[in-house]
Write a structure and sequence with these properties.
Elements (H helix, E strand, L loop, with lengths): L1 H30 L4 H38 L6 H22 L1 H10 L3 H31 L4
Helix pairs in contact: 1-2, 1-5, 2-3, 2-4, 2-5, 3-4, 3-5, 4-5
Length: about 150
């Protein structure tokens, strides 16, 4: 059972962090060539598909992570690396929730209203939050994958 939780945990983290890496390093520069309304509409459509799946990933990460902590360590008596991974992961989840319920909601509203300047401001905020979460995600993955060697 532990192996199944670990596989689910790895796949959920891979989807979330990999999706952010793709969006930030590949899609963002490519979308920069589009005119404002087309670029903002594209990002709205991308986030409309990606963000719900991140929500699913978060649920999988929480369930699998805490299941493994209790199965492998009997609870919160886990090694430091597990607690660091847990802390950075929770910070990422909080940033995601802020992104989802604030700038993402406003971006949708402004794109629907064709208010391109305000939509652009929301996209800029989302871009900053994704950059922060991407850095945290890479740190979390490195801690999770190297922690047993500390």
């Amino acid at each position: 059972m532990l192996v199944l939780f670990l596989a689910a945990h790895i796949l959920a983290a891979l989807f979330w962090v990999g999706g952010m890496a793709f969006a930030y390093t590949m899609l963002r520069p490519a979308a920069g060539a589009l005119e404002g309304p087309a670029r903002l509409t594209l990002w709205r459509d991308v986030f409309a598909r990606f963000l719900p799946w991140v929500g699913v990933s978060i649920v999988v990460l929480l369930v699998s992570g805490y299941a493994m902590m209790f199965m492998a360590y009997g609870g919160f008596r886990a090694p430091l690396s597990i607690h660091v991974m847990q802390g950075t992961g929770i910070l990422m989840m909080l940033l995601y929730l802020h992104l989802y319920f604030a700038p993402w909601r406003r971006l949708q509203k402004f794109v629907r209203a064709a208010d391109w300047p305000n939509a652009g401001k929301q996209l800029a905020m989302i871009r900053k939050l994704v950059a922060i979460n991407l850095v945290l995600g890479v740190i979390t993955v490195l801690v999770g994958s190297t922690g047993r060697l500390w």
